[in-house]
Write a structure and sequence with these properties.
Length: about 525
Amino acid sequence: MRRSTLLLLSFALVAWVAQLVIFSGFVIDDSFISMRFAQHLAEGEGIVWNRGEAPVEGFTSFLWILVLAVPHVIATSLAEPLARVGGVLAVSGLALWLFRMLRARFGDFPAAFAIVPLLAGTPYVINSVSGMETGLAILLAGLGHPLACAGILEKDARRLGWYQLVALLACMTRPDYALCYAATMVGGYALAWRLPTRGELGRVAGYFVLPGIIYFAWRWSYFGYFLPNPFYIKAGGSGSQSIVYVGTFLVLFAAPAVATLLLGVRDRETRKLAALTLLSFSAPVGAYLFVTPMMGVYWRFLIPYYAVVPIGVAASIAVRSGWTLRVLVAAQVMLALSTLPLASEYAGRSGGFTNVLRDLGDAMARAHPEGEALVAMNDVGIVPYFGGWKVLDTLGLCDDPLAHDEMGQEERISQLAPDVILLHEPRATHEKYDMDALSVSYEEIGRIPYLRGTLHSDIVVWAQPQSPVAAPLRAELSATEFIPATLEPSPIQAVYEAIRTVYHGGSAKDAPEAAAD
């Protein structure tokens, strides 16, 4: 193996391990939404948000719910570590498999260059340890594309069949993968300048279409809606949020790979493979220009589609040499390094929030262990999972009437009259809660800071004075020592706030905080 290849691999591996250490305590609040659904499924309640209520599809990854139900059957305490370790194993395992496969086909250096973002790219580390389904989505997308390329462009019927199965699982993990699948199938046969054979159509029908129809019909009848609730909540984008979300991803993470693919399209030898890879990547990523993404700057929804890129990049780079190759490699290394300081700041900010939420959930569980009280809140991950209360998700992901615009927030809160309202203050301002109206029926019983060094970083707890849970919850909040994170002002924090200000479409002080990221 050449020295240049060893240096590139060494850089990627060192960056991977170092960032795993930095983000060892990182977890996304939203990951516990999936865990709550999985816990109820494991208990025999079905896929429900609140025990004893109707099913609701407040998640986008049905397959991840099934995966997480397994540790909940064995021991609930295993769910979080297994979710996080599973994400790390999925991404690192994919990188190893891709390197071996690409090395055998294109050589050492192209294979090493192609997998650098998977290991050295901070967004991959963050999303692999987050506890979300992202690691599984990355794995399936990365496995599927080489199979599709071989199956369609090289007429390998066996691999085409395997691709159909992987694509089915990928769609069950992330429904928007269907866009990637459609672009790959249509684009592949168009680039190959042929129609699928009868045997290929049989594999498509038997391994993807028919099982997909059965699954889709079941989930539609079970949940009652055409798509999961997050798709309804996040529809109607195309403003500055979506442009920043997609644009920063392309510029700060995907630029060298996209440039490599464009160069590959120019070469006769690599034209079809590079063009198909570019189509498969661009279709789902471009679709997010028309969606309002409700996550932050580390591209959780886009990162899995970058995993389709390595085979096209390796093929394209294999025919490159000279200054073009050096520029592409240098750009990829620089981009991998550039996001690390910003990510470290993000981890500290988010860590303060999630640690406080864990303590708050535990306090609520102690205050009302029966779990029959109702709390309305706008960050519905960690606190509901550990608190065990019934929860009204005021954002609407886990509440059908809100998700489908059958009523507004204030009307829904008035209808259900929750015992407690728990508001993440910046998001409450951003979502325009009528705080004056709330104060008529509720009184503030707690204000919990989660981040020292910034304004408007409190979790505010309101309760109905006559509710039987008000007094014990107030006592638990007073007795609990909440330890927020502390951030010192820095240039990195200024960059972070600037990006968030544009992304969230408001002032930095009013923007949703780290859990929304």
